[in-house]
Amino acid sequence: MATRITETDSVISLRDDDIELIVGETDVTLVEFYTEWCGTCQRMKPMLETIAADTDAAVATIDIESHLEIAIEFGAQSTPTFVLFVDGQPVEQLKGGQSEQSLRELIATYSN
To answer: Looking at the UniProt record for this protein, which Gene Ontology cellular component terms does it annotate, in alphabetical order (predicted)?
Structure first.
């Protein structure tokens, strides 16, 4: 039985087999590729929670050390790397720490 993603107000933690489901079920999805030991990634967590709580976009994270193949597939060779998916397709990629405003503007550019 497939899980359908409708609305969420928190960051979704992904595994390899989840990413296609999440990005396929939501119009706009921001995915952060991270590592546990990345200080910048740790500092991004509260910001991502805030964005997930008050935008229509789904916000998800995936640990590149545990899911290296999917990270390579989407070009996430450093952390953090953000990939924005629209209608299931990657449309933008940002590398390194980002401001909340820059991520919100990116999401707003592609949101209806």
So the answer is: cytoplasm
